[in-house]
Structures are given as C-alpha cells and as structure tokens.
Design brief:
This protein has 433 residues and is α/β, with parallel strands linked by helices. The protein has 2 domains: 130 residues, Aspartate Aminotransferase, domain 1; 240 residues, Type I PLP-dependent aspartate aminotransferase-like (Major domain) (Aspartate Aminotransferase, domain 2, 3-Layer(aba) Sandwich). The chain is 42% helix and 13% strand. It contains 14 helices and 13 strands. The strands form 3 sheets. It has a 7-stranded mixed sheet with strand order 2-8-7-6-5-3-4, with helices on both faces. A 4-stranded antiparallel sheet has the order 9-10-13-12. α9 links the parallel β6 and β7.
C-alpha cells in the first residue's frame, strides 16, 4: 500500500473508530482530568543500566493517568509536564504583556531552541529553519527546489503524502517527472533498496526523497548510504524524519542529507505545530524560499527562509525544553528503551494464532512502529474495544493493503502496558470483539 492511499485510509479510519466509540455510548472510558499530578516531579538521574522502576519514574513526568497505555507515538506523543509548564508560563507572560519590550526574551528563546536543535542534530544553527511541522518542511523543499521539464524526482511509495503527493502535484504544474520505488513487505534488507536506487538514478534525476522510518509498518531505511549514493551523483536528498527525530539518535553530520524534516509533536514529545527543516549549507544556493513575510530568523538560512510572520514563540521554546528533557534522560537510552518495547510487542504478536505481522521481525530493519493484521477481526471495533475496555490506544488502519492495527510505543510506555495490550489482543483473537 502506498502512502498515496494512506491519507484517505486514515480519514476513513478515524471516522470508523469514532463511530465505534459512539456505538458504545456512555460506556466509553475517558480518563479523569485530575488523575495525574498537577506539577512535575524532579527527573531522576538516568542509571547506567535503567530498570523498569526508572522508566516508571519517567512515566510519572507525563499527564497520562496510570492505567492508560497510549502507544501511538507515530501519530502524536504526550508532552512531559516540564514542557507543558514552561509553555504555559511563557504564554501567560506574553498575554499579560504583549508589548515588543516584553517579547524580546521570546525571540531570544526562539534562537536558543534553534541552537539546541543544531546540537541535537550535530549541525550548525545557520542550517536550521523552525517550521510548523514535517509537512510544511517537505513542501518548502518541493516548492523551493528549481525543477524543469525533463528532470526527475525519485520517491519511495511509503513516503508521507507531503513527500509523495506534493511532488506529484507540482510535477503536473512544472513538467518534471516522478519515479516511484515500490517498497516490499516485509522489509527485504538495505542491500535491496541500495541496489534499486542505484539502478533508478539517472542523468535526469535531481532529487531523491524518502522516509527515514515509515509510519506504515516501521521500515527503517539506510539513510546515510542513500544520501552518500545520491551525493556522488550530484542528486539532492530530502529525508523525512517525522518518525526518527526523538526516537533514533539522528546524526546529520554523518547522514549528510541536503534536507531533513521533522515535527516536535511526535517522538520528541514537544508542542504541536512546531517543526524543523534542516538545509545543508552546501544546498543553500539550490533552494528558493516560498513564504515571504516578516520576523525572520537571525542566523544563516533562517534569515531568508524563516519569514513566516507572527509565530507561537512559547511553543517554539517548548520544543527546546522537550529536547533538553530527552537529553537529560539520554538519547541512546531512549532509543534502546523504545526498541526493547517494540521487540517485546513483535515477539508477543508472533505467538498469537491468526495474527499476521507487517513489520519486519529483524531488529535492524524496523524501529518502534509495529503493524499487524488481527485475523478477520473488524479493525475499528477492535481498536475501540482496546481503548474503552482495556485502556490501550493504538492506531486502526482499515482498508487497502497491509491494513490492521498499529502500535508505536515510546520511552514513556511500560512493559506492563505492552503485556496488557498483548493479552487483550490474544483474548479478542480467541473470542472475537
């Protein structure tokens, strides 16, 4: 299934899921507003070998009440209390006094977040553009790269619509061609895609755009090797990092893409409508800004590429606070924890009769996005039952190829939540929904 059909599928999925909950009526479970601490507790120092007790203390940093297992990080992550509190404090300060003199510190906070992102990604602040989300970053690239008739863009079929359909739409307007590499299920291994891309790159190819980690089934692509291959051919690369930033210890100094995009609201556990577009300094002269307004950034490419008018600076500063929160825990520890939870899900699902896994069981080929077909069960009904009866939230994906249910756990999830989810799926597979 390509991401071209995914947009419509997700819209159907949400409607069907909502209808399933509506049928349940008042029985649907809704967590109480006062069920979590109103203030953040001090985050403990990460031990050299974190145990479950440590991760339970991390879980307490989030507003989600005990007993609610949200495993949908590929869509939206909860924000930890220290970030919520900082954003609320800054919003109150701005609305108390929205004058220019009082807001100077907010502009300084925006630049501080830019520096934090640069450090997080191991690049320079002059290569960072603060956007609203991955979709905006992807479209800034496809609108800003100068492509002509006879030239081509090489894409992957599981790209997000903002990195697939957007290119198709613009190809019809500007006349350049689009070539698509179909992604194989299960993941056939890095060598397959490296060989396929090598064969597809031609003298007409100007851009290679792919998703670092797919939201469909969690396929992890060899980003560094793909970028190197394209660079040697003089081809620009756009890496959609919506599912990798905040999950994987991304090192853009090693990957060396021309463009990398991501959102705060997914795996970084940051505020909504804040994102990042990295533009490699070697590509600054090869892309045009497509939004021109006031209040640009203060350094590098942001001076010409980040004139988006009035911004929500408290949210942007909150993005920086989310990065600091992850750094305090440890990025490699977060990556290892998420992979551990993912593998526990995969191993458990493999033992349930009738379940078909779409996600690769090879740990090096996937990461923290687990998609599976629950036999002949009605997918929206199963998702609704898991939420209202078992307090487990995933993402239903009915219709089309590789339909089913998706769990995407992150470091705030617990092994007890994974075990609870597996037990519930096993029960519904045996008895029906």
């Amino acid at each position: 299934m390509s991401q071209h059909s995914l947009g419509g599928e997700l819209r159907f999925s949400r409607r069907a899921f909502a209808r399933s909950l509506a049928v349940a009526g008042a029985a649907a479970w809704v967590p109480g507003a006062g069920s979590a601490s109103a203030e953040a507790k001090p985050l403990p120092v990460t031990p050299s070998n974190p145990n479950e007790a440590f991760w339970e203390s991390v879980r307490e940093q989030f507003l989600m009440p005990p007993g609610l297992g949200v495993m949908n990080a590929a869509n939206l992550c909860p924000t930890p209390l220290p970030v919520v509190e900082a954003q609320e404090r800054l919003t109150r300060d701005m609305d108390r006094d929205p004058s220019f003199p009082n807001r100077i510190k907010l502009g300084e906070g925006r630049e501080a977040t830019r520096k934090l992102l640069a450090e997080f990604l191991r690049v320079t602040a002059g290569e960072i553009v603060l956007t609203r989300n991955t979709s905006e970053g992807n479209n800034l690239v496809s609108s800003g790269v100068d492509l002509k008739e006879g030239e081509e863009v090489l894409l992957f079929s599981d790209n997000h619509p903002s990195n697939l359909d957007a290119w198709k739409s613009k190809s019809r307007r500007f006349g350049f061609g689009v070539q698509i590499i179909e992604q194989i299920n299960p993941h056939p291994g890095d060598a397959y895609y490296l060989d396929t891309v090598a064969k597809q790159l031609t003298a007409r190819t100007r851009v290679l755009a792919f998703t670092h980690l797919t939201s469909t089934v969690g396929d992890l692509l060899p980003a560094r090797e793909l970028c190197r291959m394209a660079r040697e051919k003089g081809v620009l690369t756009l890496v959609d990092g919506a599912q990798s930033l905040g999950l994987i210890d991304v090192n853009l100094a090693e990957m060396q893409p021309d463009f990398y995009t991501a959102s705060a609201h997914k795996w970084p556990c940051g505020p909504k409508e804040v994102g990042v577009l990295y533009i490699n300094k070697t590509a600054h002269s090869r892309i045009w800004p497509s939004i021109i307004s006031a209040f640009p950034g203060s350094t590098g490419i942001s001076k010409s590429f980040e004139s988006f008018g009035q911004r929500d600076e408290p949210a942007i500063i909150g993005f920086g606070e989310a990065l600091k929160f992850q750094s305090k825990i440890g990025r490699k520890q977060i990556e290892a924890r998420s992979r551990q939870l993912c593998q526990a899900l995969i191993e458990g699902l493999q033992k349930i009769d009738g379940v078909k896994l779409w996600t690769s069981t090879e740990p090096t080929r996937s990461h923290s996005v687990v998609s599976f077909l629950p036999g002949n069960l009605d997918i929206p009904k199963l998702a609704a039952a898991l939420y209202e009866k078992d307090h487990i939230a995933g993402a239903p994906r009915p219709g089309g190829q590789r339909s089913g249910l998706r769990f995407s756990p992150h470091f705030y999830n617990l092994h007890s939540e994974v075990d609870h989810a597996l037990a519930a799926v096993r029960r519904y597979m045996a008895r029906g929904v």
